[in-house]
Model the fold of this input.
Amino acid sequence: MADLLGYEGKTVVLVGAATGMGDAATKQLVELGAEVYALDIAPIEAPVKQGIEVDLRDRGSIDAALAKLPEHVDSLFHCAGLPGAPFSNLDTMLVNFVGQRHFTESLLPRIPNGGAIAIITSVAGIGWSKNRESVDALVATQDFEGGQAWCEANPDAANGYLFSKQCIIAYTKRKSADLVAREIRINCLSPAPTDTPMLSSFHDQVSREFIEEHFLSPLGRNATPEEMGDPLIFLNSTAARFISGQNLIVDFGYVAATEMGLRPALL
Ligand SMILES: NC(=O)c1ccc[n+]([C@@H]2O[C@H](COP(=O)([O-])OP(=O)(O)OC[C@H]3O[C@@H](n4cnc5c(N)ncnc54)[C@H](O)[C@@H]3O)[C@@H](O)[C@H]2O)c1
Done:
């Protein structure tokens, strides 16, 4: 059978590999024959080519981690994230957008034409186009320092999880246009609630009942980490070679139900 995914022998970098969706995607990529360089602030369990510590809140840490990566990288995945509280809004913005973007921009020269980037955002970012002024302003900043300074100067706008996820979607769409000339694809993936360590933080913030009443997938259960890791792997695969600039919503029809007025649209 043809290898539709095409990861055998490919050099893959995955940030946020310690737990949850990133851990699931890392294990699957190893099974598919990729050489995986796995990064996280926490220890990596999966049997990867190399595990590397990185703190996405810290530009120096990101640059030190980049220095340990190979000169040729076929595929980049971003799975790291903070849930907002109990972390500060600034830490959440740095991990979820500013540091992640610095990592991506710094690695891009090592990604050859035809490479691919996939980033996990969230269904929580679905309202990004209603918040264009702030989203465009942060996405327009040029680098880590510029992004951090904008967040510090605009704390009402840079108010944590939802905004960080809106910025990922806008950055992905904007960047896809820039990368056409190099035939590099970039997409993001928006999960519905998924059974990972982060979900308990969301329950602590607003209550399990609220999340389940308003955001649970129409199937009536949370997704498994693998049910997000697998479509993320698809996005950077050979099978998805004409897909770029997309926000793949993986929710078993939750957003569709809100669009058709079958459920309230809270986002
Ligand atoms: N679980 C959900 O219900 C849900 C829903 C929508 C979107 N998401 C998104 O999915 C992605 C994966 O999250 P998850 O649900 O697997 O949760 P998770 O908490 O298991 O994974 C997040 C990973 O990010 C790492 N991380 C945290 N701070 C870091 C830092 N400073 N530097 C480097 N790495 C750091 C963690 O160690 C962890 O491995 C995140 O972007 C999250 O926002 C999750």
